[in-house]
Amino acid sequence: MNKIVNKTLTLSNGTNMPTIGLGVWEMGKGEMTEQAVLWAIDAGYRHIDTASIYGNEREVGAAIRTSNISRDDLFITTKVWNDAQGYQSALKAFDVSLQLLNMDYVDLYLIHWPFNGWGANKVYDINLRKETWKALETIYASGRAKAIGVCNYTREHLEEMKEYANMQPMVNQIEFHPFWYRKELMEYCHANNIAVTDYCPLVRGRKLNDERITNIAGKYGKSNAQILIRWGLQHGNIVIPKSARLERIKENIDVYDFEISQEDMNLLDGLNEDFIVVKI
To answer: Which residues are catalytic?
Structure first.
């Protein structure tokens, strides 16, 4: 087993969240997810990010039970999907997630998107957002989620929450990488004590071999992926790269032994072209 990495970020309620997690989107059901989670835990990961829509909560839970790591030493995130928004629907969806994970609690429960439906059928409804958040507050009060938050919320959605929320979200999980450097949203979250989790930090491979990243990686003796992950960490964020390959899983967490210079951080910040991976 690799040396355990204990880098964490303290959320607004005092919960410690590991700054690197394994994302399991698109791994689906079955052996691939279980194996990836086991490899990640063995490599030192203590944070696994899943969601009801990923269809692999059962596999994540099974892998954790197979591992020799105590549940209390792990940080598990899952999310309520768009079709379960609303107070009662979200409560029921959470119960289903807990049953599939076979756990008494999760460490973080998130609203996946600020709308119901998807694509041409998506509906933005403040009442649904309000009722769903009310359900998350109920879950948090019960102790079955150690922290609660949102995904894909813009500044406007977060400002809106100040009007109806009894507590503000502890996390906002957003697409975040140098090619969509959402500086203003990140700084707003940080200023309001909302931790930012970066998903698609490797741009799903679409920009991974950009020559400018390769040039920077060469200076540090690191891979392009490690540079992208480290960039997110140095912005004060949590980063959840996804991989089902053992060598990549190990590589993605091996980023705590170097620091990108401010000059190179500025170069990476300058790569922004509003390149959006997840189209809604």
So the answer is: 54
